[in-house]
From TrEMBL:
The keyword Lipid biosynthesis does not apply. Transmembrane segments: none annotated. GO terms for cellular component: DNA polymerase III complex. Its EC number is 2.7.7.7. Keywords: DNA replication, DNA-directed DNA polymerase, Nucleotidyltransferase, Transferase. Residues 219-338 form the DNA polymerase III delta subunit-like C-terminal domain. It catalyses: DNA(n) + a 2'-deoxyribonucleoside 5'-triphosphate = DNA(n+1) + diphosphate. Belongs to the DNA polymerase HolA subunit family. This is DNA polymerase III subunit delta. InterPro entries: DNA_pol3_clamp-load_cplx_C (IPR008921), DNA_pol3_delta-like_C (IPR048466), DNA_pol3_delta_N (IPR010372), DNA_polIII_delta (IPR005790), P-loop_NTPase (IPR027417). GO terms for biological process: DNA-templated DNA replication. GO terms for molecular function: DNA binding; DNA-directed DNA polymerase activity. Residues 20-147 form the DNA polymerase III delta N-terminal domain.
């Protein structure tokens, strides 16, 4: 398994492999690095003919194989990209397991004229790709690239370049504060940059602007907490709550975010049953489409009764936290344990 620096070195030396598997949390960074492989391999004049993109959520093995087997047009090589290839996850359904097994066999003797690139996104930051046995097996025939989050100067440089591309200058102090405050995901970063630019039109960006416009970073942790509740993993749920407390988050704020999460899941579940699609629901809950997609998946893990009871538990706990006779941390732990049993 290599990192992005290892990939960059190989590309600069012109040493491209026959197949790649990317895994990480940030889809934008993954796609930017896949584009480097495409640009190095495919002549821009014939890109439409020698670059094929397939949806990994619904692709069949035959579709992948046919795309790879077709000869390139006026080029030595072609590139086939399978995005969001969830059949590469450690645990999948029977259909995904079948596609993965066929892929492993196919990669033992792939066509020399094609570079096959696949990627999937980690569910959360706690997922460790090194423990995925499917990736370990694929390393025998493919180059597995672990895409970590950008940090430090690399992060500052990348974020600053986005501001510049959009015609806005941000000071070094404000840039660093923005990078430290925003969620480290470039889909989110770009959206928040757009909001900041619109809000500060005609003037410089200040620290106060950043504080006012950015969403709370703890929302991502609460998503993970609720997801562990859906999986009946009490210890991990409480661990996340303790992480939030150690970061200095107020218990009432944590409870409010959990209650908001359950409320959104209830609304989304209703919307799905009414036939609403991802874009419609994203507008209703005022969240980006890619976040709404995750919430839709999470909502399916709960019944209406479970979500209703979880919301009621949040309200009952709020009353107790506002009283002086209860240990607030203990009450939060009791609430989390109770949600696991509804």
């Amino acid at each position: 398994m290599i990192d992005l620096d290892g990939l960059d070195n190989s590309i600069k030396k012109g040493k491209l492999e026959g197949s790649y598997v990317f895994v990480g949390l940030d889809e934008m960074i993954i796609n930017e690095n896949i584009d480097k492989i495409i640009d190095k391999t495919v002549d821009g004049q014939f890109k439409d003919l020698n670059y094929i993109k397939l949806d990994g959520m619904k692709v069949t093995f035959d579709e992948m194989m046919n795309a790879c087997e077709t000869l390139p047009f006026f080029s030595e090589k072609k590139v086939v990209v399978v995005f969001r290839a969830n059949f590469l996850r450690d645990k999948t359904d029977a259909a995904g397991t079948k596609v993965y097994s066929q892929l492993v066999e196919y990669l033992k003797n792939p066509p020399p004229h094609c570079i096959l690139v696949l990627y999937y996104l980690q569910n959360d930051k706690r997922e460790n790709p090194n423990r995925n046995k499917k990736l370990t097996a694929l390393e025998k025939s493919a180059t597995v690239v672990k895409v970590d989050k950008l940090k430090g100067e690399k992060l500052y440089k990348k974020v600053n370049s986005i501001f510049e591309e959009k015609g806005k200058i941000i000071g070094k102090v404000e840039l660093r504060y923005f990078c430290e405050a925003v969620e480290n995901n470039f889909n989110i970063i770009e959206r928040e940059i757009d909001k900041l630019i619109s809000y500060t039109e005609g003037r410089d960006i200040t620290r106060e602007d950043i504080i006012k416009m950015l969403p709370h970073k703890s929302e991502d942790d609460v998503f993970d907490l609720v997801d562990f509740i859906s999986q009946k993993k009490s210890e991990k749920s409480i661990d996340i709550m303790n992480e939030l407390i150690n970061k200095g988050e107020n218990l009432m704020l944590i409870l409010s975010l959990i209650q908001t999460q359950f409320t959104m899941l209830y609304k989304i579940k209703l919307g799905i049953d009414k036939g609403k699609n991802k874009d419609d629901l994203a507008k209703e809950i005022r969240r980006p489409a890619f976040i709404c997609e995750k919430l839709m998946s999470q909502s399916r893990k709960f019944s209406y009764k479970q979500l209703y009871n979880c919301m009621k538990l949040c309200i009952d706990t709020e009353k107790k936290l506002k009283s002086t006779g209860f240990d607030k941390k203990t009450e939060m732990e009791i609430m989390i344990m109770s949600t696991l049993m509804v």
